[in-house]
From TrEMBL:
Residues 17-51 form a coiled coil. It comes from Methanobacterium formicicum. Keywords: Coiled coil. The lineage of its organism: Archaea, Methanobacteriati, Methanobacteriota, Methanomada group, Methanobacteria. The keyword Coiled coil applies. This is Uncharacterized protein. It comes from the Archaea.
């Protein structure tokens, strides 16, 4: 999540993705704290083991028994911290997986929308092209009195054809951009 992915802001489910990203950051902060705590506990264990080794040269003493009890307590703390770290790593992994699922879903929605827009543009293009051809034929075969009316219809339909072609081109570019983003995100 380190790289900037501004294009994700266009997804319809960006709010859910941002919520999951905040959860991931929270988990990562907790993981960092847990790893620091684990490091501190390990250092305490090493210090107590060193102290215990130095004490074992002598006879039995209550001090040595107290040190063993502390060592056991720190060992329990280490096990608990390891469990917390394992749970946090699992939560991070699950959240990242959910983010990927949300991104796929959002990309799928905007892809379907862009494809529908392109398909509608193609239908409109065909319809307007037929109307333009029909108006051109009427213009070419009309009397001078009717020709200005058919000329206007022909020009109007040609403009619609041009607009439809531009709309289709925009939709095609959007589809390509969505495919590119999908490849970037998921290989």
């Amino acid at each position: 999540m380190a790289r900037t992915r501004r294009y994700l802001n266009n997804l319809p489910n960006i709010a859910r993705i941002k919520d999951l990203a905040h959860d991931i950051l929270d988990y990562e902060l907790k993981l960092d704290q847990a790893q620091q705590e684990r490091s501190r506990v390990k250092n305490e264990i090493l210090a107590l083991e060193t102290k215990l080794i130095a004490m074992e040269r002598g006879e039995y003493s209550p001090k040595r028994e107290k040190t063993r009890m502390k060592l056991n307590n720190f060992a329990d703390d280490l096990v608990a911290t390891d469990k917390i770290i394992k749970d946090l790593k699992r939560n991070i992994s699950d959240s990242k997986s959910m983010v990927n699922d949300e991104i796929r879903e959002g990309l799928s929605k905007i892809y379907k929308k862009a494809k529908l827009e392109r398909d509608e543009g193609l239908k409109d293009l065909i319809r307007h092209q037929n109307l333009a051809d029909e108006a051109h034929n009427k213009f070419a075969n009309s009397s001078p009195e009717e020709s200005s009316q058919y000329h206007h219809q022909w020009i109007s339909n040609v403009q619609r054809v041009i607009e439809d072609e531009e709309r289709i081109e925009r939709s095609e570019k959007e589809l390509e951009a969505i495919k590119r983003v999908y490849r970037l995100e998921f290989g």
